[in-house]
Design a protein that fits this description.
Distance between the termini: 25 Å
Number of domains: 1
Protein name: DUF4395 domain-containing protein
Domain DUF4395: 19-155
Biased composition (Low complexity): 1-15
Radius of gyration: 16 Å
Region (Disordered): 1-20
Transmembrane segments: 26-44, 50-69, 100-120, 126-153
Number of strands: 2
Helix content: over 70%
Number of helices: 7
Largest sheet: 2 strands, antiparallel
Strand order of the largest sheet: 1-2
Structural class: mainly alpha
Length: 158
């Protein structure tokens, strides 16, 4: 799903509004692992643990969606620990699609959280599994479902 990104580190990052495209993939990898843990907890009969973890993941999605992808904790982690060890990115990407993808992740996980608190524990597992698929696709293949939805909506707007 989408996913968090790095903070700007060069004047080009700031002036063009671009982000390092490796940042969202890094965040998606962390998110995928956490979502997989939530699925396993839910399937293992620990629905309360799954609900708590999914609530934390939804809160992280909310942060990325409303505060912006550059303010996400995974982006800061990528910025400080990973990016210094990599070559500069070949190109920067627009921050809007990954930020929108955070909103999509929030809708999916938030739905699972709300239904979980309403007494539907299977909804927690289903939401976590759906979000896991999206995060896995982004982390492993660089295919961001939320970004694709953003681009489709942009085309439909003209």
């Amino acid at each position: 799903m989408p996913t968090p990104d790095a903070l700007p580190t060069t004047p080009a990052d700031t002036t063009r509004g671009g982000i390092d495209p490796r940042g969202p993939r890094f965040g998606a990898a962390i998110t995928a692992v956490l979502l997989l843990v939530a699925v396993v907890l839910g399937l293992g009969g620990l629905s309360t643990g799954a609900l708590v973890l999914l609530t934390a993941i939804a809160a992280l999605f909310a942060l990325g969606a409303f505060a912006g992808i550059r303010r996400h904790p995974y982006g800061a982690l990528f910025q400080r620990l990973v990016r210094p060890r990599l070559d500069p990115p070949r190109e920067l990407e627009d921050a809007a699609p990954p930020t929108f993808a955070q909103g999509v992740g929030l809708i999916v996980t938030g739905t699972g959280v709300v239904l979980g608190f309403l007494g539907v524990p299977l909804a927690v597992v289903v939401a976590a599994a759906a979000a896991f698929v999206a995060a896995f696709l982004n982390a492993v293949f660089g295919y961001c479902l939320g970004c694709q939805i953003y681009l489709l909506l942009a085309r439909l707007r003209g």
